[in-house]
Specification:
- By secondary structure, the protein is an alpha/beta fold.
- The chain has one domain: Rossmann fold.
- It contains nine helices and seven strands.
- The chain has a seven-stranded mixed β-sheet, with helices on both faces.
- α1 packs parallel to α3.
- The structure holds S-adenosylmethionine.
- S-adenosylmethionine binds next to β2 and α6.
- The site of S-adenosylmethionine has 17 residues, from β2 and α6.
């Protein structure tokens, strides 16, 4: 019954999953609910909300991602959008980064249960990893949902991607104001807004936005600034 529910949602948004992927999503849902009883992973715990707000929402950016990409999900929390994207693109290289270690214990467990390959789960702050030469300018795509305002978020994300790579900011409504305020930050960091895609989730009235920014220039070495500064003093 629940699988039918998820299948219908997938049809609504034109996304196809095979049986293995459907099983993996069921496993994520069960694990998420179980772990959430022990540690605070997510406020979304109702089955239907998990399918729509976590799974469908996380899968929609896949339409803008190429197979085999090297991807980092910054501030992944309980693995969104990174885990659904990794399930969708079995062969992508996925890095999940978060500054809260206990969430990573869950992520390691789920990655093992789902037998995910080419997945790297790391603990720390985006500002520090963005200056680490093993991570800086090494990704095709950096993506993030519900982590920071655009002005701060671009300083977290743009340093991770190679020139010509993209960052995908998953945003709620009223994104235009945030974009306006972050225009010079995007430029300083070497980005250029490519597309703003409005979308809706099944049975939710709110309009969401995917902001896609292409990296057109190398990021100056002083960015990201030290941990805390991008949120305290967003680039203007
Ligand atoms: N992306 C997930 C989602 O949409 O369900 C989690 C969103 S949660 C509201 C924000 C997450 O970002 C938290 O888990 C927090 O630890 C992480 N975070 C915030 N700032 C960060 C930073 N500078 N570096 C790494 N992680 C960060």
């Amino acid at each position: 019954m629940e699988n039918n529910y998820f299948n219908n949602l997938l049809k609504d948004v034109n996304i196809e999953l095979n049986n293995k992927q459907l099983k993996q999503f069921e496993e994520v849902k069960l694990e998420l609910i179980e772990w959430n009883k022990k540690i605070n992973l997510t406020r979304i715990t109702d089955d239907k909300d998990i399918y729509i707000k976590h799974f469908i929402d996380s899968l929609l950016p896949c339409k803008y991602i190429k197979e085999n990409s090297k991807i980092i999900d910054v501030g992944t929390g309980a693995g969104f959008p990174g885990i659904p994207i990794k399930i969708f693109f079995e062969n992508c290289e996925m890095t999940l980064l978060d500054s809260i270690n206990k969430k990573l214990v869950y992520l390691n467990d789920i990655a093992k249960k789902l037998e995910l390959k080419k997945i790297n789960i790391i603990h720390g702050r985006a500002e520090d990893f963005g200056q680490n030469k093993e991570y800086r300018e090494k990704f095709d795509i950096a993506i993030s949902r519900a982590v920071a305002n655009m002005g701060t978020l671009v300083e977290y994300l743009i340093p991770f991607v190679k020139k010509n790579g993209i960052i995908i900011c998953m945003k709620g409504p009223n994104v235009l104001e945030e974009i306006e305020e972050s225009k010079s930050a995007i430029d300083i960091l070497g980005g250029k807004i490519e597309e703003i895609i409005k979308y809706k989730l099944p049975s939710i009235e709110i309009e969401y936005n995917l902001v896609i920014i292409r990296k057109v220039k190398t990021t100056p070495s002083k960015y990201p600034r030290k941990a805390g500064t991008p949120s305290e003093k967003p680039l203007k």
